[in-house]
Automatic annotation (TrEMBL):
SUPFAM superfamilies: Aldolase. Residues 1-270 form the Pyruvate carboxyltransferase domain. This is Hydroxymethylglutaryl-CoA lyase. The keyword Lyase applies.
Length: 283
């Protein structure tokens, strides 16, 4: 299993600004653990996400000299992508393409057609710059707006991404709507149908449903999982206030159940857990 740690998702919705030095220190702690990828920040409007307005400053303070971990930054439009592409330290750009037209408009102020056009342009820019675009299919398991959702709709979005040459697609359970009954069939259908795409799972969950969701994605063939230490963060639109990010420690527990070695430095992970408890203690 490939683990993507998402402190950006954990921090972005917090109302109190986390000082830049604190963010930088925490991310440097995470870089020592050995995650495949660190979703560390985003180049979006400071008005949209005030918490991450210092992403460039944080990036400048990261120690990448002895870590295998690659950096991923979220962008919401071409302007953000162009900014992110100026930083050679970043390997991945992530863009949220929503299966729900309502959420696309709310999240990036675009129509679905406009968002797909941006995906095409970003993918081309990433290819020229030696970077990789990660496309998140937001609201990938349903939405609260009454917009149409079905496995066929998700497949149609994936077909369009495959036609563009997109190589990584993360199905995103934005509001915690997924169940084992929807997760396994979706991955089981998509993974063999699109062998050129690496599929990931960005699952939001309550503390009691995490195991069934991870197991369902794993059973469907998914081997790329997003998590956040402590399960911090998630979408504020979720119906259950306990719905948050998939806790990284639970992903590690599941890997152990499968007899898999995470390959992480567990002493460094313990230090990261302690750091997370400090960073998020007052939020």
């Amino acid at each position: 299993m490939k683990l993507i740690e998402c402190p950006r998702d954990a921090m972005q919705g917090l109302p109190d600004f986390i000082p830049t030095a604190t963010k930088t220190e925490y991310l440097n702690t995470l870089l020592q653990v050995g995650f495949d990828t660190l979703d560390f920040g985003s180049f979006v409007s400071p008005k949209a996400i005030p918490q991450l307005r210092d992403t460039a400053e944080v990036l400048a303070g990261l120690d990448l000299s002895s870590t295998p971990t690659k950096l991923l930054a979220i962008v919401a439009n071409l302007r953000g992508a162009e900014t992110a592409l100026q930083h050679p330290e970043i390997s991945y750009l992530g863009f949220p393409l929503s299966v729900s037209a309502t959420f696309q408009r709310r999240n990036t102020n675009q129509s679905t057609a406009e968002a797909l056009a941006d995906v095409a342009a970003m993918h081309e820019q990433c290819e020229r710059s030696g970077k990789t675009l990660v496309t998140y299919l937001s609201m990938g398991f349903g939405n609260p707006y009454g917009d149409a959702w079905s496995p066929e709709i998700v497949t149609d979005f994936t077909e369009q991404l495959a036609a563009l040459g997109v190589r990584i697609v993360a199905l995103s359970d934005t509001i915690g709507a997924s169940t084992a009954a929807t997760i396994t069939p979706l991955f089981s259908a998509l993974i063999p149908a699109f062998p050129a795409i690496e599929f990931g799972a960005h699952l939001h969950t309550t503390p009691t449903t995490w195991h069934e969701k991870v197991a369902a994605a794993y059973e469907g063939g998914c081997r790329r999982f997003d998590g956040a230490i402590g399960g911090i963060g998630g979408c504020p639109m979720a119906a259950d206030e306990l719905t948050g990010n998939m806790a990284t420690e639970n992903l590690l527990r599941f890997m152990a159940e499968q007899g898999q070695d995470s390959g992480l430095d567990m002493a460094a992970f313990a230090r990261a857990q302690a750091a997370a408890a400090s960073v998020f203690a007052f939020h």
